[in-house]
Design brief:
By secondary structure, this protein is of the alpha+beta class. It is built from 10 helices and 8 strands. A hairpin with a 5-residue loop joins strand 3 and strand 4. The chain starts with 15 loop residues before the first helix and ends in an 8-residue tail after the last helix.
Length: 245
């Protein structure tokens, strides 16, 4: 990996699923992995699309979003470098009812459908890790639904900001309140009021197109239990990455 102010070469091992593979499995997969950018706002797949690739993000954030017939939408899950985009390929359904969009720009390594299916049918580590990740993703989706139904906008916003900064490993987010409102399935005015309350409490600062989390510990205390529940489930199901030469 080479990194300076202008150049950044993604490494497949920045994705925790790929990093957790054995050396033999990783080396077998490596020639089939293609580095691709994840530009901000890119719709990777629409609802019902026949997915052609799985993507293993190395940085950035991808949102799985459900859109209703009236055009309103709500985010059901976030995917970062801990996971996989395109689980329908190996789950057998080939498509999903959600559309997939890049929330924060980054990079990913993609693997074509045929290769992923072949690897999955081997019944090895990639299959096991993919299924464990899918279980974790289902848990996040379920917890998000409960959170949106039962917790305040301030708590939902706190959860969303904590998860996003976890994935980016950066407390400064480039994001509009309008986008957050769309992700949470609420009005922009509600997000603005919640962000203002959190800023008044000293937990974050809000600038045009930017939100900076100032005190993560207090933010975690302010958030509902959903953030810790999802975080703990991912830690329980997914192994720590091993070092791959």
């Amino acid at each position: 990996m080479k990194k300076d102010s202008l150049i950044f070469d993604p490494d497949p091992k920045q994705n925790k699923i790929l990093a957790a593979l054995s050396k033999a499995d990783y080396q077998r997969l490596l020639p089939h992995l293609t580095s691709v950018p994840l530009p901000l706002g890119w719709t990777m797949s629409e609802s019902g699309d026949h997915v052609r690739y799985v993507h293993f993000p190395t940085d950035g954030i991808v949102s799985l979003v459900y859109r209703l017939e009236d055009g309103s939408s709500s985010e059901v899950a976030l995917v970062g470098n801990e996971g996989i985009v395109g689980i329908s390929i190996f789950m057998g359904g080939e498509s999903m009812p959600t559309f997939t969009t890049v929330q924060n720009a980054g990079h990913a390594f993609r693997l074509d459908r045929a290769t992923m299916k072949r690897e999955f049918e081997l019944g090895g580590e990639l299959q096991k890790l993919s299924l464990l990740y899918t279980q974790a993703l289902i848990s996040q989706t379920a917890q998000t639904a409960v959170c949106n139904q039962h917790h305040s906008i301030e708590q939902q916003l706190s959860r969303w900001l904590l998860m996003s900064t976890d994935y980016l490993q950066n407390n400064d987010l480039t994001v509009t309140q309008e986008l957050i409102a769309s992700m949470l399935g609420t009005r922009r005015e509600s997000v603005s009021a919640a962000a203002g309350a959190l800023q008044k409490a000293g937990l974050l600062t809000v600038r045009r197109g930017h939100i900076t989390v100032l005190d993560r510990k207090k933010m975690e205390q302010h958030s509902c239990e959903c953030y810790e529940t999802v975080k703990d489930e991912y830690a329980r199901l997914l192994p720590q990455p091993t070092t791959v030469d």
